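Researcher: Here's a chain I'd like modeled. Treat it as a single chain, no partners, no ligands.
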Amino acid sequence: MNCLFCKIIRRDIPASIVYEDEQVLAFNDIEPRAPTHVLIIPKRHIDGVNALADTDDELVGAMFRVAAGIARERGIADTGYRTVFNTNRDAGQTVFHLHLHLLGGRALGWPPG
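Model: Modeled as a single isolated chain. Structure tokens:
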């Protein structure tokens, strides 16, 4: 598969990996929008949120638990952080492999965008 994130999973492209288990890989975003900007991705290719199946509920839960764990490790869990799935181009999705953004380490404005 020619997917950028699949290439990172296969180690064809280097990444600053911060977490890995059998289902999920997490790495620092190469264009961070906050002091902490980590992408959490499933190791199995899923195009995005609209491609999720009922059988993916556990996987999505695991992605959020990984995000919370990284937030705790980075000391931002108590002050606050944001988790975001961008879905399709108008929402800003540029890599069509499901990924959860973990952003924190500074005050984040609302509304986003």
